[in-house]
């Protein structure tokens, strides 16, 4: 579209009589009617250029806080989801301790170990790994529950649970 307008202006400029350059103007300056040689030159000359972004320390700190705040929300959401999911682990382990309690203790320990991690890539990797582990654990519990329900309906199931 811009090139069509430039072509139209080029046709108009050739049909208009040219004014002789003023002797007072230096020879290296172009007059308005002479126009740019290329589209890039036209854009460079007439489009306002944005100054390079330079963040001062306060703006950088504010951006970091925003990132940390959103990451903090994600971490807290994952932790809450883990605590909620542990309700479904109602059978005891080999020591007689409920799996729910074991999982909650391990989750708390892992979150405390990573509490002061500052590297965003490491935090993202931990979040993704935690979310994947939670999803796969829930899928396994659901599958075990389905198997137990199938056994109970067929009359071959023993006393509840859904354990290991």
UniProtKB/TrEMBL annotation:
Q: Where is this region: Disordered?
A: 144-164
Composition-biased stretches, type Gly residues, lie in 155-164
Q: Which residues form the Complex 1 LYR protein domain?
A: 73-135
UniProt biased composition (Basic and acidic residues):
144-154
In the record, biological process GO terms are: mitochondrial respiratory chain complex III assembly
> Do you know which InterPro entries this protein is assigned to?
Complex1_LYR_dom, Complex1_LYR_LYRM7
Listed GO CC annotations: mitochondrion
Q: Output this protein's name.
A: Complex 1 LYR protein domain-containing protein
Q: Which organism is it from?
A: Turnera subulata
